[in-house]
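My main concern about presentation is that the manuscript never shows what a single data entry looks like. For the editor and my fellow referees, an illustration may be useful. For illustration, here is how one protein appears when written out as sequence plus structure tokens:

***
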Amino acid sequence: MQIALELACGVLIGFTLGLIGGGGSILAVPLMVYVVGVKNPHVAIGTSAMAVAVNALTGLVSHARAGTVKWKCAAIFAPCGVVGAFIGAAFGKAVNGQKLLLCFALLMIAVGVLMLRGRRNQGEAGAACNRQNMPRVMMAGAGTGVLSGFFGIGGGFLIVPALIACTRMPILNAVGTSLVAVAALGASTALSYMLSGYVDWVMGALFVAGGIVGSFLGTRAAKRLSGSGAALTTFFACVIFTVAAYMIWKSLSAL
């Protein structure tokens, strides 16, 4: 039963990554803590970062084949994010686990609001990274990396709107491009937590196995629903608000 539960959670995480380029890790941590029953929030953060990194690579293969990845933007964004992730992880491990979950939930609410505000932004076909927007892309990469490392997330739900804001690329391109950074940031965060003994490899492997299936299904759905981005974003924002409210309630009860 426990194995089936972890596989199912992995499928859900992979599906959201393939569908909208993010959301996998923002759901992975609460799923591990409140559904699977991981006692130590730091272990949940470290393990989810590892699983999300691998699942992002799976989704990236499908998006690369579909030609939706802006490789130049990814090459600029990802390295800046990796540097920020190591810095953020160092601070995150020093914070009390329950307080970290509470801060994580508040960040989820902020991101949900931003997603709703930008849900009708369709982007510009052919938009890419250039000399004019490169500084903004680098700053966005570093800032996203810090948050990714601090909260142990892949950061895709932050990277997608950041790429759209910096370059005005269509959401489908932002989703594909974000997976490069999600994989890099997740791996960096996981490495930092692994060195501190905060990764459960058995559970992580089950999440990855389920995530591979979910990523494939999510990528196929993304290509079919790319014209319904507003409805998709609204739905996912509502999921974020629901999970965040539950996390805030549980965290405040534990403090």
Summary: Residues 1-253 form one domain. The first helix runs from residue 2 to 20. The chain has a mean pLDDT of 81.
